[in-house]
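During the first year of the project, the team set up a workflow for recording each protein of interest as an amino acid sequence followed immediately by a discrete structure-token representation. This format lets reviewers and collaborators read both layers of information side by side without switching files. As required by the reporting guidelines, we include two representative entries from the current panel. The first entry is reproduced here exactly as it appears in our internal archive.
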Amino acid sequence: MNNQFVWITGRVFLYGFVLVFFLSSCVSKRKLIKQPLKEYGEEFLIEKMQESETRFEYFAARCNISLKSDKAQTELKGQIRMRYDSVIWISLSPALGIEVARLMISTDSIRFLNRLEKNYFEGDYALITGFLGTSIDFNMVQALILGNDFAYYENNTFRASIDNEQYRLSTTGRQKLKKHLKQSETPDILVQSLWLSPENYRIKKIHLKEFSDENQRLHIDYLEHEQISGYYFPSKIHMEVIKQNNRFDLVIELNAIEINKSQTFPFKVPERFHKLQ
């Protein structure tokens, strides 16, 4: 009986010690994460986030893409190539490896080639804006793929906090800088939250919507990263697009990533293909 009492008492003390150690570790980690915010505020996080962003001239990777809606699911493989601040090129194939579609996004236009239906599209960013449910431009598309913050948008409306042991930057009124607005462009007001890793200040999660529309939202999770030449590139991205009562889930997995190796971006429309209006 005495031995059993001693054994039970020992277990209680052991579990209690582990619990106290665990809680104290969490408190210490939270205190460590919180310290820079107390000393420097939001500016510290924004500066660190910008320092951690990926920079390159050329980028190439193989990709696996899964697109799921309420009605269907599509699995594709392909290639993605980029020239920073210039062009994004994507070639898509089913399991057999024969190309079914090609997409090329530049700073002012979008070109899409559908080999199955023998048609193509050439136009502006209304195509992506309609799909995502929010106004978007080339720099925003590039940033979302790379896990960078939006270039040319103001940063002075962010407020910082700690959420689940990650830094969180939130704003309810972010706009594009006036000097980067086109003459005919009406500035959208973004409601945006960014979650940053305390280890490397890379963006881990984004919530985004326009101030005037509660029914359309974009959520992005950067589930995995791969370190290449000192930069952390997203290697698994989950995008959730919510439009009215519809939801789309897009998962992009990148592998065989190469940077700063010169790339080509071919896009030739066959003669018998017809143009979509």
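The second entry, processed by the same pipeline in the following quarter, appears below.
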Amino acid sequence: MSETNQPLNVAILGGGSFGTAISNIIAHNGHHARMWIRDEVRAQACRETRTNERYLPGYALHDSLEFHSDIKACLKGCDVVVIAIPSQSFREVAKQAAPFIAPGTLVVSTTKGIEWQTFTLMSQVLEQELPDVKLGVLSGPNFAAEIVKQQYTASVVASEHPEVLSTVPNVFSSGTFRVYTNEDRHGVELAGALKNIYALATGMAAALGCGKNTVAMLLTRSLAEMSRFANELGANTMTFLGLAGVGDLILTCTSDLSRNYRAGYAIGQGKTLDEAVAEIGQAVEGINTLKAVREKANELDVYMPLVQALYAVLFEGECIDAIIKQLMSGEATTDVEYDR
């Protein structure tokens, strides 16, 4: 329950797997949970079957969970709004929602991505489109399919607003889903976006038959690269040792439940980028994130050999072996690079 132990009105914008899993927890916790799905046909199917067959087939949803295709009705009187929309549609939905979200509302983004044309994080998009709300981001090693199976899972909410840090863990947590707090919103959000890039790399490595030594090397050098880049952008590099950083990196880079890992695996098998994305059938956030980060790294002159090699493979026709060769012959030799 909330701090006041009163049920809250919570709107979840987005009917994908994670939005559905979070909605179900919130409903189970006794809050008034409403999930917005753009397509009325899908929303009606969810009402009738009490499942989200497209994204989480076979898992029964709480009887009190509401499904709306009318965004105004979904947002009416809400205390908390969760936005779980793919990054490419995020700003559009924020604009659509803005007239119906009251000033002071707690708004939490769960989207792990970057608006790559402008290098804008999702909470920064919300700052632009919803200037009078209290923002937070939720991130961590959180596969929705395991959350709904009640596998033990932890996440982190980051915000500069005490109300967000006190309310979200109470509203979102369950006996099997725990939410920790962090004040470094920028670092938590960067970590959640950046790790998708490196899942493409480890997926490729797996398809090529690389061993555990290689995977361990890729993971640790990815973490160093992420923190180096984030430090340049003003984030606290210690954030990357937490759930949103190393936790999410390990999960996303080692599991075929990860869309980015599966896309990398398909590319490693010889499929084109377009073929890999079509095979996944859902958003592969790491691709646009790679474009954005590579451009920003060049602008800031940040050494990111994995990003450069991945970009060359995916967009310039280089051989996949270039990723490992770049890593093995690069200029940096320092192992640990963490500073506060």
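For the second entry, the following points were noted during internal review. The longest strand covers residues 134-139. The CA atoms of residues 144 and 209 lie 28 Å apart. Both points are flagged for discussion at the upcoming steering committee meeting.
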